Design the sequence.
């Protein structure tokens, strides 16, 4: 059974369209119209999915992709049920069977479900990485605390889907930003819990997740209007990515840490990460079987459900030396990994001891103002990923080639931030004008 999603615009003024399915079965051609709306400019009709280079948030892409997959499952199950019951295969009958299947399940989403019950069903249904799921749960916890906070002045306040509008979204965003100060002034409500100051980037990220949830609510017919039509999510602002030079990486790698084996080990792990450029979550998931014919191969956990592409990064001599050094490490793990938190702490300690204290300019995420800090204060596991990408870009200047090894999808906004072109590269370009 070949299920081909496609869209059709019925007027030149139309910008969005419902995804449809065309299928051939028993010498009949059937058509099904879904409730999934997509921007026509972001859709690849030839391949039947969102364009790989479509610029959109991860949450929106995931939501649309998962919804289309759900429709495929409903169509297949409905056709099998119709064949079992000898129901004539027509587009109209198939649509009725799909609706019966979608809404007959006692566990299906219902309009009278509570707000947080709906969030739980949404999180169970969407297919995202464990890291992304933690962000979703963090938003749910924030909204639960917001509800408790609102009940101080309005005892009967409940967060409901009916209450979702632009005014509420403004309140939620303000609460996310101010929760630390609110908790400090009302310790009895938060049981003494403290929160670090939050940045606008963090708030914008949480609002994007909330937008994905409301999109799902629309798909499930729980709400009809999009509350985000009159609410604009503020753009996330990032400073120039900070990464270390090859010389600094070599200085760290050659520093004698024999007096502290624990830091030496995590230093080696960090240098290895600088040489393969993966995310720390993927780094910690690597096993001895991940090394194949002189290269590390893995599928990035962040995109494995929507874009399960195998990433292959050849290992240079330094990377192979590090693996050889720990060849006797017991277990299946590739290297002696510790927790992400302890790993980041060890990285800062190693940089401090090695006197890697170059002053760098970073953007304060809360004030959005530039600040000067020594390198050892700002390094983290993600610095290794930036180092891999930044140094390669300065050598090759081919974003597609580098992205094939870093695991960024085509058109990734995140990847563009890594392209901090150094002064030497700028001089090289200007000299071309001579």
Sequence:
């Amino acid at each position: 059974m070949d299920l081909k999603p496609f869209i059709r615009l019925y007027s030149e003024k139309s910008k969005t369209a419902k995804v449809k399915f065309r299928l051939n079965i028993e010498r009949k051609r059937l058509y099904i119209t879904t409730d999934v709306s997509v921007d026509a400019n972001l859709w690849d009709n030839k391949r039947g999915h969102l364009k790989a280079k479509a610029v959109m948030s991860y949450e929106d892409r995931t939501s649309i992709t998962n919804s289309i997959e759900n429709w495929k499952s409903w169509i297949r199950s409905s056709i099998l049920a119709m064949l079992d019951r000898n129901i004539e295969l027509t587009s109209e009958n198939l649509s009725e069977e799909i609706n019966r299947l979608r809404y007959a399940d006692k566990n299906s989403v219902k309009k009278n479900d509570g707000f947080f019950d709906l969030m739980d069903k949404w999180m169970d249904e969407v297919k995202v990485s464990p890291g992304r799921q933690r962000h979703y749960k963090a938003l749910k916890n924030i909204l639960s605390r917001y509800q408790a906070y609102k009940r101080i002045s309005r005892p009967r306040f409940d967060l409901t889907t009916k209450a979702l509008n632009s005014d509420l979204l403004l309140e939620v965003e303000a609460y996310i930003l101010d929760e630390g100060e609110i908790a400090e002034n009302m310790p009895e409500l938060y049981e003494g819990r403290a929160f670090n100051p939050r940045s606008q980037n963090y708030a914008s990220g949480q609002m994007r997740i909330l937008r994905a949830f409301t999109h799902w609510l629309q798909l499930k017919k729980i709400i009809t209007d999009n509350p985000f039509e009159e609410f604009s999510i503020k753009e996330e602002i990032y400073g120039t990515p900070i990464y270390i030079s090859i010389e600094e990486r070599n200085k760290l790698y050659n520093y004698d840490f024999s007096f502290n084996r624990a830091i030496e080990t995590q230093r080696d792990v960090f240098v290895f990460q600088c040489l393969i450029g993966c995310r720390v979550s993927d780094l910690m998931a690597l096993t001895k079987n991940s090394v194949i014919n002189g290269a590390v191969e893995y599928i990035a956990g962040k995109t494995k459900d929507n874009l399960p592409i195998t990433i292959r990064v050849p290992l240079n001599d330094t990377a192979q030396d590090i693996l050889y050094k720990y060849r006797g490490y017991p277990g299946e793990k590739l290297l002696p990994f510790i927790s992400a938190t302890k790993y980041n702490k060890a990285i800062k300690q190693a940089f401090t001891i090695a006197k890697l204290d170059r002053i760098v300019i970073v953007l304060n995420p809360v004030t959005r103002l530039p600040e000067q800090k020594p390198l050892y204060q700002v390094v983290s596991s993600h610095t290794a990923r930036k180092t891999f990408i930044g140094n390669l870009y300065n050598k090759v200047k081919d974003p597609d080639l580098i992205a094939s090894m870093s695991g960024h999808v085509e058109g990734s906004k995140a990847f563009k931030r890594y392209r901090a072109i150094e002064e030497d590269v700028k001089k090289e370009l200007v000299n071309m004008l001579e």
